[in-house]
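Open question from group meeting: does this chain pack into something compact, or does most of it stay loose? Before anyone orders reagents, we agreed to write out a predicted structure and look at it together. Recording both the input and the output here so the notebook holds the full record.
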Amino acid sequence: MAVEFEDPRAALAVFRAAGIRIGKFQISAGLNVRLSGRDAVTLAALRPFAEGVYLHQVVERSGRGLTRFVDLPEALRAAGRADAGPREWRIHFHVPIFREQLGLFSNTQDYLRELLALLRRGSPSQHLEVETYTWDVLPEEYRREDIVVAVARELRWVLDRIEP
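Structure tokens returned:
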């Protein structure tokens, strides 16, 4: 939902109004990137995330609305267009929830904070799953931490936001 720039309160209300039951919430964080113009430095820093194991869908929000790309390499190729102005990308690349910054990029932690606050007040599902499965394809500088320690930090980050 964060990658699609969905408002969490509105999305949950739509599900409720339509009678759609939510079996579980998969909690993860994606990359959040702000670009201005062709922004060569930022685009170069993104290239290590364009790995070939998983698709990393990109949704771009600009003055023209939302533009969707099937995978990060496609978005990177389109980023050099002459009319590229200020825009924000949300990238479906599961990054550590507890790591707010990844070099030049933030993650979608703010979105998760808002969603978890809503769930704390009354969740339509008792099942939460922390879903960061891309540890082995993260750029090396973001995966130096022991995997067991990192997963524990993921779970602690979520628990700290949902426990009363």
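Observations to bring back to the group:
The helical segments are 8-17, 40-46, 72-78, 109-122, 147-162.
The chain has one domain: 8-162.
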